[in-house]
Amino acid sequence: NNNDNNNIPFVNQTEGEDMERQRHDKIYDKEEQDYDASIMQHKRMGNNDQSKKRLPTTNTAATTTTTTTTTTTKTTTSSQPTPATKKKPTYANKEEAVEAFKSLLKDKNVGTREKWVEIMQKIIHDPRYQALKTVKEKKRILSEYQEETKIREEEERLAAEKKARAGFDELLKSSDWIDENSRFREFRDKVEDDQRFKAVESERDRKALFYEYVEELVEKARKIRQANRKENAAKLKAYLTSDECKWISADSTWRDAKEHKIEECPGAKDLENSDKIKVFEDVVRELREEEKDRKAREKEKRKKMERKLRDSFRELLQESLTKGEFHSKSLWDEVDHLFQEDERYKKYASVKKPKITPEEVFDDFTADLEERISSPKKRVKAAVKATIGTVKHDAKIEELQKAIGSHDEVKDLDEEDLKLAINEVIAKAKWKHREKEKKMRKYTKELEKDFRKYLARGYAENMDNLKKAKLEDAVNKCSSKMVQNSGYKKLDKEMVKGIFERIKGELLGEEQEEEGMAVENDDDDDDDMDDEKESNSKRRSRRRNKRKRDSDIADDDENDNKNRSEDDEGDKKKKRKKSSSKKKSKKKRKRRDDSRSAAEDSD
What we know:
This protein is an all-alpha fold and 603 residues long. The protein has helices spanning 2-5, 15-54, 60-79, 94-107, 116-123, 135-174, 184-191, 195-199, 203-240, 254-259, 273-322, 332-335, 343-349, 358-372, 374-387, 397-404, 415-458, 463-468, 471-477, 486-490, 493-507, 512-602.
């Protein structure tokens, strides 16, 4: 048996291996006996069923005869000599035994879906069935074989499908007449006898492959059209942006383009009208963006230039302030002549429509100065009061600084702040002196007016008496209202006497020239008073403008947030208004219904 099956016997077998082999042989013999018994039982059951169909009723004698015959047959069979038992094949190692069992499964064409009972009928009589010891191990190897076979068959199926699809694709590509409007029925009628067509067995797969190819043709055609449209649009755009189309600008319209025959431009003939309009609008939009950027650059450049000139002018103001040429209460009209010859002022004044004028820069500068020296000025005033009492209008900054420099109030002040504060104090003294002179001129004018009036009235009958009259006699003779005149009380006696003598001479015709001079002085006094009022109003206006500019800067930063909040608030108000109007309309309807029901009840 070993020579017939070409099996290699085990070598160097031990006593334990012999016992294992004997046990394995017993298991194999038992499996064969169980299998033979099951086959014989199946056949007997089949014969009994057939005999029952042929002989529906049997007598006792027949049954006894059959039983006797069967028994005799079994006895005869058992008495026959048993053939020699086949020896189990041997293998060199475990791997060889597994391969022998798998080769058995392959030779018997065992399928991937067959069960163990069906497979055992095919392989149990083959000697290679004994290659593995236990049924569990055989089933495990069978499962591995079936899984490997399934994978192999799936790979073969996919390879076959791939090959069939490749052939079908080749058939589609060789059919030059197919385009994006072709139908599968037309294709099938023309190539149904081709082996590449038949290689794909499913009609559904054929149709899917055909329409996939048609879709590829559609996509390819779409890409070609898109590429052509882009190329033509690029040609048209290049032409519109060239020097040949100088007529186009940021304000051009489609009507202008039609007037210049844009349809005849390169690339425009193969474009649709919507594409032409889009290209034209893109060109105009780019021109607008360029114009916007150019204006923004110019604005930024102008802004930087103005800032530079403004800073230079502020340096000029600082230099002039250090020299004491003006103070925080000064007005532009009073000091503008100081800067007329300076180049820094000339350059700034030459700017057309500046955002901030030189006068506004000066007002801001003086406002900042006033805020800066507010505290030092108070300390300087306290030091002056403690040391020299009052400041004269003709005092010098150096002299006053030397006089109060050692005082505790101003000892720790910065030198520049100290000088600026002293300048403010001296400016205030000058202002008081001017105010005092104005009042004196006012009193003088009022007193001259009264003297002229009452002396002429009192001495109208005899002017010679006026010539000899003294001040006290003339005042007593004139109206008592003259004594109540503020000028008579405020002016000292010498000034009152001088005014009296001058008016007396005018009345007597002796001082005509002085009369003209007095009238001119009166006009000057009026002008001074008007100038003072105007300066005060200008100061108030300057402060208002400064506050307005500061508030404008703050408002500019808050505009966006306010606009958003106002929009939200507006929406809320609209909703509230709408809801309130609905409530009002409901109340009106309710009152109308109530009135109607009341009228019906009264009827």
